[in-house]
Design a protein that fits this description.
This protein has 601 residues and is α/β, with parallel strands linked by helices. Helix content is 56%, strand content 10%. Strands 7-6-5-11-12 form a 5-stranded parallel sheet, with helices on both faces. Strands 1-2-4-3 form a 4-stranded antiparallel sheet. A 3-stranded antiparallel sheet has the order 8-9-10. It binds one RNA strand of 76 nucleotides through helix 2, helix 3, strand 9, strand 10 and helix 13.
Amino acid sequence: MFNDIQQTIEDKIKAWSAANDIPLAPLKWTSIPFSGEWGVSTSFFQTAADEARAGKSTGKPVPQRAQELAEQVKVQMGSVEGISHVEAVKGYLNVYFETGAYARRVVDTVLASGADFGRGPAKGERVMVEYAQPNTHHSFHIGHYRNTILGEVLARLTEFAGYATVRASYPGDLGLGVITVLWAYDKFYKGQEPAGVHERGQWLLKIYAEATALLKEKENETPEEKSQREQYEAERRELYRKWDAGDPYVRELWRVTREWSLEELRDILNTMDVKMDVWFYESEVDEPSKTIVDELIARDIATDERSTGGPVIVKIDEKLGLAKEKYRTAVILRSDGTTLYLTKDLALAKVKFEQYHVDRSIYVVDFRQSLHFQQAFKILEMWGFPQAAKCHHLSYGYVTLPEGAMSARRGQVVLFKDVVDEAIKRVLAVESEKAPDMTEAQRQTVAKEIGLGALAYSMLAVDNNKDIVFDMNEALSFDGRTGPYIQNAHVRANSILKKVNGQIPNATFQHSMDKHEVELIEQISRFPAVVEQAANEYRPMVMAMYAYDLANTFHSFYHAVPVMQTENEEARNVRLRLVAAAKQTIANALRLLDIHAPDVM
RNA sequence: GCCCCCGUAGCUCAAUGGAUAGAGCACCAGCCUUCUAAGCUGUAGGUUACAGGUUCGAGCCCUGUCGGGGGCGCCA
């Protein structure tokens, strides 16, 4: 975590290579496989291989030569401030830190930085993360949740890593699905309205499923059924036309029901502790997006085939002169002049770049739309936006059910709200036996924090490109590699610190440290680099993995090393500071994962 | 036909081209008179789908094969 020692060593190695006329390959530093003490290591395989290729080979195999070089460097090293010893092993140069001095430095830094420990330096770039794009007139299901937790954690990561970060939501509030709900509501349920934010949202989903069934062609349909269905279909089309024409009645119907969905969405975002900076709505970019089509035609990027009854298209592969199909041809305006998903995304990108001055634009959208985004980014590039190079589609796999894909049409969905309610119920059941002393209010708060923690972690600890088969028992597991496991480490750290009323003593780190103590400090010191990596690679999972490793190391330490019972006062003070530093780091990691770090559970 | 993703322990998943491929779950054996047992310790479990290639070094990069999933001009 402190690069100054590493830099000193690197300078020495460079001086040695210059003095001995050995062309040095770039040095890559990694941590040494843990062996009770810690340090950093670099290898000489590349340098040895380069030598062999340049014909300066001594005839020895590369690994042997690398070991020889490492040994030479070791001899030249001499004593370095902060380094206890250096060794040459299997072609690696292992540099070990002075345990006490390094430990003290790490722990003091964490305690001085507090909630800011791990925060990266300002990057001077503005990032917009677009996520939480559910369609309105449906209810929020567990798939939407994966999207939202991924986006939120990514935003927390980029923000903490030093990027100015803008959170954007983009609900889909128009289209045939929306109109279908309006039609059925108006025809069968007008004037009705269940009480309760979630009840209303879920009711719209039920109406949608019913309407879809009514409009679907059945096998062995009787003539009566057929004419009924066709009449419904005509009504739905007429409603769509009226909506498009701005009919006041339809627009009002749409506005009111849309608000029901948005209210539910806001409530869920609030539950998830997500605060959006910007709300884009499809309905608001629909009209403006038409003008960009004209611009693209005028600049000969798009081809207008409307004169022959066709749509407006961009022949991307052809324009780029690609022999093989890759980006294919994209339709950016229907032949009837109405817009498409892509039309709106192009218009929205322009708004992001020009009005929000976004340097980097991240889209958290499931993997099925990867071609769409490849096309969109390529068209933005052809259009002349340099930011197109820094547009990134964070694609992720679907959340499916054991019985198959979720389907709003068939009403086969697992609602987020239901899962949260179940989670809280399960935590309460465990809690009544584990923590009988808690007050009722505290019990409710903690149950929500633990339940949501379990759910969030189950989504975050899987790589984006994997599908998740949603299993309630797995998602709400409290044992092993889970959110509650990490939260429990935080609680245990807190329970020790409570014994000294949070008063953290000073310590000189003179005592000989146990391997559990050293390993815990090693894990803590990794945190800033993990923040950097997770943010730069847009991978929340990296932070999720780290949080578990840290908690795991803490649990082992907790079990093996007594703190308050330590007789030696200096050792006890060191351990108290170490526990405080661990608690802080666990809290910071959990915060980035959008998981609460409770003091009791 | 073309493009993208995936294939690692019985199951679910990790592993910036680098040292002996790691966790959890499940199974088995231990650990609460001690800071919270939602925990800890240990045993067992592998031809990294297959075949070539590049490299000093490949689970990772390249080519091909097989298997699974997704996508491909007027859905989003």
